[in-house]
Amino acid sequence: MSFMSSAANFFTSKLSDALGWARKYSIFQYPFVTACCGMEYMSTAAGHYDVDRFGAGFPRFSPRQSDVLFVVGTISQKMAPVLKTVHDQMCEPKWVVAFGVCTCTGGFYDNYATVMGIDTIIPVDIYIPGCPPRPENVLDGLMKLQEKIQRGEQSRTLYDPRTKIGRPAYLQQGYSIQEHIREKESSS
Amino acid sequence: MTTETRSMLLNVGPSHPAMHGVIRLIMELEGEKIKGVDVEIGYLHRAFEKMCETVMYAQCFPYTDRLNYVSPLINNVGFALTVEKLLGIDIPERAKYIRVIMSEISRVTDHLTCLGASAMELGAMSAFLYMIKAREYLYELVEEITGARLTISYVRIGGVKADLTPDFADKAFQKIAEVRKVLIESDKLLTRNRIFFDRVKDIGTISAEDAIAYGITGPFLRSTGVSYDVRKANPYLIYDRLTFEVPTGTKGDNLDRYFVRMEEMEQSLRIVEQCLQQIPDGPIAGNLTGEVISAAKMVDKAKMGETEGLIEDQVDLDPTLQGSTKKYYAGISANKKDVVLPAKEDTYGNIEGLMNHFKLVMYGHGIRPPVGEAYFPVEGANGELGFYIVSDGGDHPWRVRVHPPCFPIMAALPKCLVGDMMADLIPTFGSVNMIAGELDR
Amino acid sequence: MTPLQRIQEKFSIEIIETHAFRGDETVVIRPGALRTVVKFLKETPELDFNVLMDLTAVDYLNFAGGKIKKDSRFEVVSHFYSLKHNHRLRLKVPVGEENPEIDTLSDLWPSANWYEREVWDMFGIRFKGHPNLKRILMYEEFKGHALRKDYPFNKRQPLIGPAI
């Protein structure tokens, strides 16, 4: 490896770091608020929890101006095409946050009217389960998203209900928290 | 010179920044004047009624939480009261007071959210932040009792889940004082604000006759001058013992609705204060003199047959179940073994309690109201919230119908909008306080 | 005289059944008499039911409580309220399985307009004379009527995405 190419690598990696750093602290979010989770979204955005501390205090209500799509609340089958359109209208790079358990897996609305997880329609980067998630939980998810933005990663895949690939294990049916803790302990 | 005028169709929603809720309006505009409106709903249809048919009565509560998610406690109370009517049972006084306290706190949070959000949509961001601050105080209060902020499932058929904490009254008075302060501040920010005032005055007017014909209830009807409030007309729980006013407007415009909501918050706080003063102490079980042991230890002791002194022991419960121990249980739930879960000490400590618990929670058992039907209206934050339940004598409801207060208001929305300017859509829609979860169910 | 007694007196032939279970006065009438009875409810000064509080339907397919015949699988249930006299009445009309159709109330109470659309959407009961009878909660592409007992609760008909 020549000196020149490694220098170029060095600069591009530094450049992407800097870009990631800039991006993660200036999140322009599009709140796609449909249901109950909107109340906790409001709480998170208002003074008490103050999402502005994380550089995400500026909701843009045009999908073309935003880079993170917050899907807040249940998506019904009637709403699904709208969500897809909004997601398609966003410019790259874009991230999607599934806010609340209805958007993650469908939750207890396992019926004819609701979409069982928005990751069957659009790729999801961060899942924030909870019904609705507490504001602390939302901020935790936001920080995880920031880490992901810093690394420059984006989710591109959809969840396939037949093969059960594309959704984190902790959101799958039959997942055991004990097993999860054991795995974490053994890996560390 | 004459210019040709043509009307234009403008589509607003389902995901629109200035509309907190998923709804689609197709407006026919002439210049900026609204000539006609077509309202399309159903974007948050989550099959509440169908889901209730597939689960047992007690399991419907989580679904009712998510109907009007801004004031879930009122939904809980409404559903519980309907099932109790079907069963024909009464609940202890203390539980009634607790239900009223929680409902009224919920009503305040609902109105705060409605006014705050609609003020924000008119550009008054600081009023929104102030009101959400006040709502946060009330959420803390709710969380203290129920263990959750928003979707609480606190009410049970035949009572409530947990008793009030010992220092609840002090805390509540403190928070109410804080909320009052915020209300005064927001009143200054909004009522004396020329921009806000001009944008809501004489906008979105509806006449009393129209409102009645469309079946509208709640603040929306009261703003037109009709003083109909379920709490006064058909008092339930203990509302007949409380003094409170039902504010009414005169013109039925957005400003009247704003004033009615502001005044209702004040009245609700008044009700909470009265309840806190009047609330009777529940009968506290006196024979619990034993030590406080953990739930697991109690179960072990009972299983191993070490029953000596077990009947007097108290159980140390998980924080989410606090307040539902035997000590407080008699005060907050009806003495009906076929409806109400036994106190936790009984469930962990003796076989009768355990069997009783199982008989109520196991699939195929559960609460079984007699064959029949019942409708019970309560005053929700947006108007009359009625549950209509048909029972076939089984453990699942045969049919649960909820009469959502938003639904008739949305049907009448074109009446309010036609003739106004396009920009007036935002304050009018805000004053409706449409909650999609309740509208579409 | 309660509203129930007044109706019993006036329309004794048209009434199938009455009860006041838990104090809710209920009257079940023949479908043909619906319009005359509701006009009487609305226009009699002593009754003055000026608010149609709720209108819905119930599907009694294989009802465990018994008593349901083939020609009355559905029941359209309306709740009336009088602001002036502060009384309530529940009016039920049986509707058959084949060709479920009854008269509309939307010209008498505008609030019935959307309620009837919802009943059509969820139960597939048509309302004769309704100005705009189309689906309200579900989308037009949806096949079947979701709240019928023979519609499986988790049978999805997605517009996009997988059907599971």
Biggest sheet descriptor of chain C: 5 strands, mixed
Query: What's the CATH architecture name of chain A?
Result: 3-Layer(aba) Sandwich
Describe the global form of chain A: globular
Helix-strand pattern of chain C, N to C?
Answer: HEEHEEEEHE
Query: Which protein chains are joined by the largest interface, and how many residues does each one contribute?
Result: B-C, 46 and 36 residues
Q: Name the average pLDDT of chain A.
A: 84
Strand sequence of the main sheet of chain C, in spatial order?
1-2-5-4-3
Can you summarize the main beta sheet of chain A? 5 strands, parallel
Taking the alpha carbons of the first and last residues of chain A, their distance comes to 34 Å
Question: How would you describe this structure to a colleague?
Answer:
The complex is a heterotrimer of chains A (188), B (441) and C (164). By secondary structure, chain A is α/β, with parallel strands linked by helices. Chain A has one domain: Rossmann fold, CATH 3.40.50.12280. Chain A is built from six helices and five strands, in the order αβαββαβαβαα. In chain A, strand 3 (68-72), helix 3 (80-89) and strand 4 form a beta-alpha-beta unit. In chain A, helix 2 packs across helix 5 (135-151). By secondary structure, chain B is an alpha+beta fold. Among the domains of chain B are: 91-157 and 165-278 and 405-436, Cytochrome-c3 Hydrogenase, chain B; 292-361, no CATH class. Chain B is 47% helix and 12% strand. In chain B, helix 3 (72-87) runs antiparallel to helix 4 and helix 4 (93-121) packs antiparallel against helix 17. Chain B is elongated, with a radius of gyration of 24 Å. Chain C has helices spanning 3-10, 34-43, 112-123, and strands at residues 15-19, 26-29, 51-59, 74-82, 87-95, 101-103, 126-128. In chain C, strand 6 (101-103), helix 3 and strand 7 form a beta-alpha-beta unit. A five-stranded mixed β-sheet of chain C has the order 1-2-5-4-3. Chain C is of the alpha/beta class. Chain C starts with a helix and ends in a 36-residue tail after the last strand. Helix content of chain C is 18%, strand content 26%. Chain C contains three helices and seven strands. Chains in contact: A-B, A-C, B-C. The B-C interface holds B 41-42, 45, 47, 49-51, 53-54, 85-86, 88, 212-216, 226, 228, 233-234, 371-375, 377, 384, 386, 388, 390-394, 398-399, 401, 403, 407-408, 410-412, 440-441 and C 21-22, 24, 26, 50-54, 56, 58-59, 63-65, 77, 79, 83, 86, 88, 90, 109-111, 113-115, 122, 135-139, 146-147, 153.
